[in-house]
Design brief:
This protein is α+β, with helices and mostly antiparallel strands and 181 residues long. It has one helix and twelve strands, in the order αββββββββββββ. Helix content is 35%, strand content 40%. Strands 1, 2, 3, 4, 7, 8 and 9 form a seven-stranded antiparallel β-sheet that branches. Strands 6-5-10-11-12 form a five-stranded antiparallel β-sheet, covered by helices on one side.
Length: 181
């Protein structure tokens, strides 16, 4: 009788051990999947930010070295930052023509807190235009009522992350800066 009882205890003991091991493995898998999902989201946000920076830089660099786009000569390139539109608008003003060509970039981010430096103080706006001219180093920055500025700061939000940038008119280089609340 005691031999049967011992075998029953051993079977139950191993079953309890297996349940504990399965529970521990389940907890470890849950934690790993949770941490990986955060990493995947963070990497996706970083990729969108890098695409934003690369797009801005490539449009500027291409306009410094050439005044051709899609086999047409342009006299001016406008980059519009609009806080309510959640995208970038590139507008080519063609030479010898009154029309322009627009290109919209990515809507997975939102632009906010557009601040322009004019008269030694920052003014917040909902729109700013960066004008780039072919073969000219630097750019011109205007607000929504065409007041010239020397610097622009803005913030882009990608899901839960936010990134801040500034552009100076003398070099027109997009630089990431520390966001201020």
């Amino acid at each position: 009788m005691s031999l049967k009882l011992n075998k029953a205890l051993i079977k139950w003991f191993t079953l309890i051990e297996m349940l504990i091991v399965i529970a521990i493995i389940g907890v470890i898998l849950w934690m790993t999947i949770y941490m990986w999902s955060n990493d995947i989201l963070r990497l996706k946000n970083k990729t969108i930010k890098e695409d934003f920076v690369e797009t801005f830089s490539s449009f500027y660099n291409n306009s410094i070295w050439s005044n051709y786009y899609n086999n047409q000569r342009f006299s001016q390139l406008n980059l519009d930052l609009i806080s309510w539109a959640n995208s970038l608008y590139f507008t080519y003003i063609w030479e010898n023509a009154q029309y322009s060509w627009n290109k919209t970039i990515n809507n997975e981010f939102s632009i906010s807190k557009i601040k322009l430096l004019s008269w030694n103080n920052f003014q917040e706006n909902d729109k700013a235009t960066i004008q780039i001219y072919p073969y000219k180093f630097g750019c011109e920055i205007y607000d929504n009522i065409n007041l010239y500025s020397t610097q622009i700061e803005f913030e882009i939000k990608i899901k839960t992350e936010k990134y801040c940038f500034n552009v100076w008119s003398d070099n027109c280089k997009l630089q990431e800066i520390l966001c201020q609340n």
